[in-house]
Amino acid sequence: MNYYEQEIINALAAGKGNVVCAEGGADEVFARVMERYPVHGSKIAWSCVEGSVEEQEWNLDLHSQSFERFFRDAVSKFGLSGELVYVGDGLTDFALSGSIEAFEGLLGVIFEVPHHHYFLGHDLDWCMCLSMEGGMSFGFSPIP
Q1: Model pLDDT for residues 104-116, shown as the tens digit of each residue
Q2: Cβ neighbour number for residue 67 with a 10 Å cutoff
Q3: Contact 111/129 with Cβ under 8 angstroms?
Q4: 89, 100 in Cβ contact below 8 A?
Q5: What are residue 94's DSSP bridge partners?
């Protein structure tokens, strides 16, 4: 387990959210994402996801704060509820599962990890992403 994984596990152990490690890992989740979303290279091609929402935060110091706002706005605007799955694309190998509310308490810890962050509806019907470069994206899967 690396430093970033340990920090997230420590936050979970400290009761920061009722979140558990999901079956499979990040690679398994990403394989399923590639089946449900159009991709360009190793990333979702958001311009090919009808109705997707994209924003950019150029100020590195505001990335975490801006994505927390983006996350909460998307939850409210699109009526998201229930369980979600979280994976990162580099420095963590696990997938985490829990309620949207549980993840809201963990966002600050998760965003300390310098990689791309993906939050997915439990059945992958929606995806929200924060890129290391400050890109924020949300969209519904075009493939049922």
Answers
A1: 888 888 888 888 9
A2: 24
A3: no
A4: no
A5: 25
